[in-house]
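Lecture 7 notes: from sequence to structure.

We start with a single chain of 307 residues. Read the sequence below before looking at the structure.
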Amino acid sequence: MSPGNEVIKIAIASDQFILPGVHVALYTLLRNIKDREVHIYWLYCGVSGEEIDCVRQTVANFGKPFELRPIDLGEEIHGHLNSLHGSTMTYARLFLARLIHVDRLIYTDVDVYFDLDISELYDLDISPQIVGAVSDGTTVSTAYDGEYLRSTFGLSSETQILQAGLLLLDLKGWRDQGLDAAVDRILSQHGSTLKSHDMTCLNAIFAGDFYQIEERFNVMLYMHKGKIDFSGKVGHYLDRPKPFEGLAWLASPYCQQFYEALDQTAMRGWRPGIKEIRKSLRKGVRPIVRNVLSREKRIAAQLFGRN
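Now the structure, written as tokens:
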């Protein structure tokens, strides 16, 4: 059943280290939604009351009907799991059905930039599937965690891989099918070894049985591929450093666009400092160096007319 003009429910998750991403994601999301009430469920960990109020100010500036519902996730549910760059908040999307008591919502990562009205996606009928997601054509045979999915969960090589950065979820169907138990079982048995973290878990559960939404709702941005024009789409910053991380100005072609949006929020004027640079370096120097060199190579090719 198409939800028509019902309230749009959005879920996000973050810790205190990616708050600039939260502001830009919500600012660009709300800027593009026309004539719809929006309820935002923000699962967070380690965020202060002052920081929550700052996000509330960003969304309030639109003057649209909205509700911001912060949910302190703490570390009780996810703290024991294999971390991604030192954070386990990436697993929050796996617990939405038990924490948010609605029938349908969109989950989005906060390292995204919206340049479209997400209402069209929210109103999409994905039945009988439980989840709608973008697949970029990756199958188990080519996925980073493909061998793990084959050997541990028995997925075939031809199984399509869903990209978990933006999901349209039928939470009622999730509950009706008892998928929380499947999540708990996988995390209990394999939580410390999931190669692609929550995305491995979702692909193990759905095994290719998901509604494939249009790629424009989750355009994957890799810096080593050069700058991609995602006008009229949703851009998803996948490479490191992300625009809000330290040293991003050395490698990311998306910093100007990101900070122009950030300066329209309650975090206007914020830029990465020494703390953010140190954190980026602790996450690993290799991806930063790789993307800086890729950028310099592209610039040289443009200057000297080489491919």
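The mean pLDDT is 87. Keep this in mind for problem set 3.
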